[in-house]
Amino acid sequence: MSMPRPFYIFHIIAAVCLLISFVRAAAQVTTTTDLVNAVNNGAPGATVTIAAGTFELTAPLTPPPNMTIVGAGQGQTIIRNAASWQVGTIGLPDNAVDHTSVDRNAYLIDLGTGTNGITISHLTLSGPELHGAIYGNNSDDIELSHITFDDFLWSSVRIFRMNNGLIHDNTFIDAGGRSNVTSGQTGGAIFITFTNDSEIWNNRFEKTPDHPGNFFGIKGRKATNVRMHHNTIGVSFSIEFPFENDFGVEIGHNWLAGVISIPKFAGGLVLEECFAYHIHHNYSRRSYALEWARNHSEIDHNLFDFDLDDDGGNLISNFGSEPAPGPTLFHNNNIKNPGRGLYWGNGVFNNYAFYNNHVIANTTVTPRMEGLFGFNGNTDFSTIAVRDNIIEINGLARPLMRNSNSYNAAIENNTLVNVSDTEMYANMATGAPRGPLAPLVFCVGVDGEFTVQGFSIFATCPDECATGGMDCTATLKGDMNCDGLVNGADIPQLVADLLSESYSCRADGDENGTVGIEDIAVFVELAL
After folding, report:
1. Could you read off the pLDDT of 264-311 as tens digits, one per residue?
2. Exposed, middle or buried: residue 404 (CB in 10 Å: 0-12, 13-18, 19+)?
3. CA separation, residue 228 to residues 157, 165, 203, 241, 279 (Å)
4. How far apart are CA 509 and CA 73, in angstroms?
5. Considering 192, 210, 359, 520, which has the largest number of Cβ atoms within 10 A of its Cβ?
6. Cβ proximity of 178 and 152 under 8 Å
7. Which residues of the chain fall below pLDDT 70?
């Protein structure tokens, strides 16, 4: 029995449509004219595949919803502004919370308002004369990955009201700037406003010496359930989310050259069931490390590792004058060479607990001699606790506190070495463990490229042996017998590696590419 003619016609049409879409998907854009046409006139849900080459635009690309734009690779497919497309700095800085203040014609890609489901990957975007690379408002379900953002005036990624955004595996080089190029307000490589349920990871942020202005790494206003992790951020303001009632924000496993700035008037909301910020397992390099006040926040399992000549900052600085109820829990961190101190507050901040931390304070260049804690004298010290810590001061002695009222805090069960004001408080022993409750061993940065091990940081070793308790595939430096510990049991294998010509990342403590007698000192430090 033959099929009805309309049935055949239907299947022929369907096959032709399928073939057309396959051809379109397989074809690569090779010219700027074809690129503009494919993106600006493309159908929602289409995929635009761009060949290797440089494509110079004179106006923004405006993709429809759910479009995928994919290049041949970073440094292979390059989209940039033509020399004739220059916008200057008029309109900068934009209003941080008002999307209508943005000059949308100053971005390489303009998502407009309500363009959702955009995916862009595997290319380079560059615009030294433009405000940024990608602008969007009410842009949900977008994914930006494997993109090099190279040289923009303000902010490479500027998005308002983003839900379910994914920004990962990108490189930001000179990817933002200041409103007057070398002065004025500062943009961010990523500048996101009103962001929910989003994730930012495995991104690298770099500023070259010749870049004229500063820029922030990840900058935002109002974040809810946002996770920023495994980024390597090499700029002086690494993360800034000021002024809003954020909650559920996680900052973990990042390599940070600069400050995390999250101040809020009176510390913001006091939350019952969720944290505002959880800052954990980061490696932080700047003595001015955290800008406060922020209520209901937890800071744990970080290595704060400051140079002796970077002694101008307090680890936590609260410049606000309005009293904040807290709490902030600061625990199980290692801190090396705090500058001015560990905490300073211009205003009152109550319910601050500093416990199970290990501090090694060597004499700084200035040298700094003030107390490690600078609480406001009107603080409710019944809510302040400094307990169960190890605080070692080498060289010039320093006091624990900067004012007499601070001695009303609960100061107990600390190991204090060369601390000059111990006669002012009892510091009663309780028998509780002192210092971090477990050794700090974790990976930070893009793809876990560095391993923090106690007070040290190394390039992450390849998987020479499986080590438990770590968040990445790596091997503990000095763990020669692969038992997850560094101790005397590792000495025989260390000696064997020293005597042999074979290379072991585990044994190369000074990371010079060879295993030699100089690595013994590093091993001893790690074992102790």
Report:
1. 999 998 888 789 999 999 999 999 999 999 999 999 999 999 999 999
2. exposed
3. 15, 12, 10, 12, 10
4. 36
5. 192
6. no
7. 1-26, 463-474
